């Protein structure tokens, strides 16, 4: 017998609750919305609408994946970020709302430039770079990543968002495959690098440790390995008067700003995330 939305929700919610899923009701509604290709309001307003046997089988399979703690974004193959929908897969870090602070911080300083060049280090899905390009019609950007698989996703996202004429993606371990004279200088360098301490990896949620790419998360003993590699090279690629913006982990702001100051940069400001914790640092390149 075909199941109603109400009945299907009750079954899936119980299954997800038994697996320790934090928001079983929300996840269930997202899965049903995806299966039926309806908006959430329609789902809420039509609890007695029936799922076909095929739709129920599909929902059952997706619920099984969620029971294994696979992230919803990977199950659906997409994630909302800023004003757009980005394709994601297991090769890419899942875009998170806290990272939108980087985009806003960049937009706050970009009006100082009439036209500008952006470098996105560790671009992943391309969400940071493409979100900025979507807001700034006079901008062009380069996104680099050490994962060829991630770069394929970023390229697809640029095409879906009709930004491929202004976005270039290249395989590079930070700056390793870039040439300052040919590729630079950039007005903005932005990054969300791996910053989780080695000792904290195993205590993260299974959705992270078992599914998201470790190279995009693991930051070394103190979580600062990436910044130690990045900051010594920024000066060669950042235009005088330009800005570097980076996401930082909890408790890392002082250490990251110290690394930046050691290289002669000026700390402009730090911004807090949705939990009111320092999450983004804006660093300035001296004019001379």
Task: Tell me what the structure shows.
The chain is an alpha/beta fold and 288 residues long. The chain folds into two domains: 66 residues; 206 residues, Vaccinia Virus protein VP39 (Rossmann fold, 3-Layer(aba) Sandwich), CATH 3.40.50. The protein has twelve helices and eleven strands. The chain has a seven-stranded mixed beta sheet, sandwiched between helices. Strand 10 and strand 11 form a beta hairpin. Helix 1 packs across helix 2 and helix 2 packs antiparallel against helix 4. The longest helix is centred in the N-terminal third of the chain and has 15 residues. The chain is elongated and about 70 Å long. The protein starts with a strand and ends with a strand. 36% of the residues are buried. The model has no long low-confidence stretch (mean pLDDT 94).
Primary descriptors:
about 290 residues, alpha/beta, Rossmann fold, 2 domains, seven-stranded mixed β-sheet, two-stranded antiparallel ribbon, about 20% strand
Short description:
The model has no long low-confidence stretch (mean pLDDT 94). The strands form three sheets. A seven-stranded mixed sheet has the order 7-6-5-8-9-11-10, sandwiched between helices. Strands 1-2 form a two-stranded antiparallel sheet. Strands 3-4 form a two-stranded antiparallel ribbon.
List the helices and strands and how they pair.
Elements: E1 3-4, H1 5-18, H2 24-36, H3 40-45, E2 50-51, H4 53-67, H5 72-76, E3 78-81, E4 84-87, H6 100-109, E5 116-121, H7 127-135, E6 139-145, H8 148-160, E7 167-171, H9 180-183, E8 186-191, H10 206-209, H11 225-237, E9 238-247, H12 253-262, E10 266-272, E11 278-284
Helix pairs in contact: 1-2, 1-4, 2-4, 6-7
């Amino acid at each position: 017998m075909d199941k109603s939305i109400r009945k299907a929700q009750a079954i899936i919610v119980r299954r997800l609750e038994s697996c320790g899923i934090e928001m079983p009701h929300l996840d269930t509604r997202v899965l049903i919305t995806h299966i039926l290709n309806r908006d959430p309001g329609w789902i809420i307003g039509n609890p007695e609408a029936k799922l076909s046997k095929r739709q129920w089988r599909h929902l059952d399979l997706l619920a099984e994946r969620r029971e294994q703690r696979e992230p919803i974004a990977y199950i659906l193959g997409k994630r909302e970020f800023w004003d757009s929908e980005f394709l994601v897969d297991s090769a890419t870090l899942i875009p998170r709302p806290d990272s939108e602070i980087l985009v806003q911080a960049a937009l706050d300083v970009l009006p100082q430039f009439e036209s500008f060049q952006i470098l996105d280090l560790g671009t992943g899905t391309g969400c940071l770079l493409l979100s900025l390009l979507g807001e700034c019609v006079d901008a062009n950007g380069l996104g680099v990543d050490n994962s060829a698989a991630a770069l394929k996703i970023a390229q697809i996202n640029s095409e879906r968002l009709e930004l491929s004429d202004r976005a270039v993606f290249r395989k590079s371990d930070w700056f390793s495959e870039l040439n300052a004279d040919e590729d630079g200088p950039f007005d903005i360098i932005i990054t969300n690098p791996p910053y989780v301490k080695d000792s904290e990896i195993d205590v993260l949620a299974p959705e992270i440790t078992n599914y998201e790419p470790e190279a995009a998360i693991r930051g070394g003993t103190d979580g600062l390995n990436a910044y130690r590699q990045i900051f010594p090279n920024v000066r060669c690629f950042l235009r005088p008067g330009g800005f570097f913006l980076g996401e930082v982990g909890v408790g890392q702001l002082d250490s990251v700003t110290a690394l930046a100051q050691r290289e002669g940069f000026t700390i402009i400001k730090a911004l807090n995330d949705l939990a009111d914790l320092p999450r983004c640092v804006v660093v300035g390149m001296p004019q001379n």
